[in-house]
Amino acid sequence: MNLFDVSQLYYIARIVVAGICGIFIGLERKNRSKEAGVRTHFVVACASALMMVISKYGFGDIVSETVGGRGADGARLAAQVVSGIGFLGAGMIFVHKNTVTGLTTAAGIWATSGVGLAVGAGMYAVGVVTSALIVIAQILLHKDFRWMKNSKSKKLVIKGVTEAQYQQNLTEHLKKEGITVYDVYIEKDDCGYNYTFIIEIPDDVYEQDIISGIDYNCKLSSNL
Questions:
Q1: Which of 16, 47, 55, 146 is the most exposed place for a label (fewest CB within 10 A)?
Q2: Higher pLDDT residue, 95 or 124?
């Protein structure tokens, strides 16, 4: 294959489009201060597209049309991406005191690799639409829909936080008190970061004790 073959520009375009889709997905994760952000999703999408392009077009020089000749299986390399990306996703899943975090981010990384494979295969519409669906689902499913909520859970809203590592420190403090943290939503404004913790409080813990132990402006309410 010629180094300056025009067809390679199409392959490069596929990798670029895949990278843009990865950025699109990664922005949502970054805005929620998750483990993997824009760069990770971008690299995963580009690398997956690259692997698919290599799988489909990188072995043309060893394919023979003669009977019994050596051929190339375009699915082999791409299949390894699907299984291999699991190691990266596993590194983003954390288990602490029976609470699991990072599952959505790990699933997003796995889905991003699929987007990269689709775009690398030339299925632009499939890759772009899938990226949009992933982002829309992640945004909408974080909303406070009544039918999705745990009736025993509470919503702890803390506003104007400027302290670094505040989410980790408060989460550890709540867990020491026996309080289960289901999820954390983060928004930023001019005054700092606003945290929304979805928690479940044991019967022997008083809500006022939780509020009094927090320095910032906070509010504890029902999650209904």
A1: 146
A2: 124
